[in-house]
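so my prof wants the structure for this chain in the tokens format not the other one, which i didnt know existed until like an hour ago. anyway here's the sequence
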Amino acid sequence: MRGMRPSRLPHLAAKRKGPRPAPSPHPAIAYIQLMLRPDLLLQPTPKGLYCPPGDFYLDPVRGAVDRAVISHGHSDHARGGHGKVLAHPDTLAIMACRYGQNFAKSTQSLDYGETVEINGVTVWLAPAGHILGSAQVVVEHKGLRMTFTGDYKRRFDPTCATFEPVPGTHVFISEATFALPVFRHPDTGGEIARLLHSLQAFPERAHCVGAYSLGKAQRVIRHLRLAGHDAPIFIHPSLEKLCAHYQSVGIDLGTLITVPSGEVPKAARKTYRGQIIVAPPGSFDGKWAQNFPDPVIAFASGWMSIRQRAKQRGVELPLVISDHADWGELTGTVREVNPEELWVTYGREDALVRWAELEGRRARPLRMVAYADEAG
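here's what i got, hopefully its the right format
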């Protein structure tokens, strides 16, 4: 097993007098005997994963804590009101956009690959590929390396750093949002092509794309630009600050025009014919959607692979574009990282745990209570 060279395990002499020695521990168990027990370094609590020796939490969302390490800016992982917050610079900027400049008493930025010591515990970040600034949090102490993925995906995203497996991980703490074999996300480029084909086929209709305000909206816009769509894209007012931040760090979203939050004069509504409007999904449920002539309602989410969900939301053009790993990516990542133990949280824990056990891997569900996922 990787990370367990034979020289580190006890050796028995070829011949020995006296009672027969006890058998050597199985390699999957031996690593625990040679270093700190994993549950002494990170343990699930009602507030989130807690590190007792470092006295900090990972992604606490159930109440404020004195010290938090945040994996990314989505509200089901990042909340304001903590004492000290450590995160990637883009995550800190995103939290400031969403919660105000004083979202924490103090903040500390940490770039990918940089390390920091917190009460003797080493912490560093690796790209997670989920959204801008998203990070896996690597926690090391007394020879034990535990990697917490937060949320992650493995496919190309032109708006954030690509996921990087962390070598030498002993305990891999994986999300499980789409951890069922039925979830196999299609190619993103193909979904964008479907949107552009619909725009060409129905030039008299506005195309209203529901996309979560952080990450998904900017990703859809950038993919549209890469596909050659150079026309202005209209956005909901709630996207302005976050899109501006993406633009400020060099992610070219092209020309964006904000649609007023109120009612648009009828004479001006023809402006939106044959145009793309991107907004949070719920925005198209109320009066704001009446500004757009004969709209094609689209929704970009991994959940759109479930037809009943699309039907319930009145989605005419479901776009299966997810910011999370699908079943094949989840299982493939576990095989690639090849940890001695897998912990599973945030989603369909039991299926991924069962898959791991059938592969002969040590695995456990964490059963942590969390807010509803913000960015399928």
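also thought this was worth mentioning. Residues 1-28 have pLDDT under 50 and may be disordered.
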